[in-house]
Amino acid sequence: MAEYLASIFGTEKDKVNCSFFFKIGACRHGNRCSRIHNKPTFSQTILLQNLYQNPRNAAHSLEGNSTGKPTMTEEEDQKHFDDFFEDVFVELEDKYGEIEEMNICDNLGDHLVGNVYVKFRREEDADKAVRDLNNRWFAGRPIYAELSPVTDFREACCRQYEMGECTRSGFCNFMHLKPISRDLRRQLFGRRRGTARSYRSRSRSRSRERERGRDRDRRSRSRDHGSRSRDRRSRSREKRSSSRTRRSRSRERRSRSRDRRERKHR
Ligand SMILES: [Zn+2]
Ligand SMILES: [Zn+2]
User: Fold this and answer.
1) Count of domains in the chain?
2) Which of 69, 147, 188, 259 has CB 3.0 to 4.6 Å from 43, enough for a Cys bridge?
3) C-alpha of residue 239 to centroid of ligand 2, in Å
């Protein structure tokens, strides 16, 4: 019997545990689900609920947008997404530890829209990240972070969507992941096999990009991390033991973003 229960755990046959929560880390019934949502006490994966705010979704719901035309081009949309992805990825990896995988949902249902799943290499790092991030704000909203049962994203993803055949579109209950551009993928994950050299070239291209986009207020708006983080940031600056060049480069980056924040408050 125990063996049978173990074999159906988290599947559709399991009448006790919710298979959606088990596989996807989110279920449309939320707390009212008739089956149990088993929240893990240890996991490599964390979920940041509804963190990515796609400006396209906001444009759709805006009243008075009667033209029916999308307010952003495909390229602008991808750029906005890539910038968000890179910011979150780099900051979380710098602060908490190596990331194996990061995925963001393009679904529209409330329980999945903008969900960011980050799978760390070490469970300790995921634990630290959840505890810390729940005290923080992003883009003017509090962050909701939790350890997630998702370990295998292939199981969580909608196969029809990957074939371009999902008929439920945004309201599907399996993950529809929004891909990052190939260039960004190469920057963030290409260094896995590589050395410090590739890391360095990554930050160089980041700062170049930043120069260019510095004055766009869309960017500064999305980077409102709240004032609490400044303290922590300076503390972690002392702790940082990596190479001097890298340290000073990121300090530069940080003071630039501080400038931006101050400009905004004026
Ligand atoms: Zn459920
Ligand atoms: Zn689907």
Assistant:
1) 1
2) 147
3) 44
Q: How far is the CA of 220 from the centre of ligand 1 (A)?
A: 37
> Does residue 78 have a pLDDT over 80?
yes
Q: Give the domain extent around 143.
A: 39-60+74-192
List, for residues 115-173, the tens digit of each pLDDT value. 999 999 999 999 999 999 999 999 899 999 999 999 999 999 999 999 999 999 999 99
- How many whole angstroms from 45 Cα to the centroid of ligand 2? 22
Domain of residue 52, CATH code: 3.30.70.330
- pTM assigned to the model: 0.69
Q: Is residue 119 part of a domain?
A: yes
Query: Residue 151 Cα, ligand 1 centroid: separation in angstroms?
Result: 17
Q: Who surrounds ion ligand 1 at CB < 5 A? A: 18, 21, 27, 29, 33
159 alpha carbon to ligand 2 midpoint, in Å? Answer: 7
Domain membership of residue 180 (yes or no) is yes
Is 179 a member of any domain?
A: yes
Per-chain residues with Cβ under 5 A from ion ligand 2: 158, 161, 166, 172
Which pLDDT does position 62 carry in this prediction?
52
3-state SS track over the chain: CHHHHHHHCCCCCCCCECHHHHHHCCCCCHHHCCCECCCCCCCCEEEECCCCCCHHHHHHHCCCCCCCCCCCCHHHHHHHHHHHHHHHHHHHHHHHCCEEEEEEECCCCCCCCCCEEEEECCHHHHHHHHHHHCCCEECCEECCEEECCCCCHHHHECHHHHCCCCCCHHHCCCECECCCCHHHHHHHHHHHCCCHHHHHHHHHHHHHHHHHHCCCHHHHHHCCCCCHHHHHHHHHHHHCCCCHHHHHHHHHHHHHHHHHHHHHHC
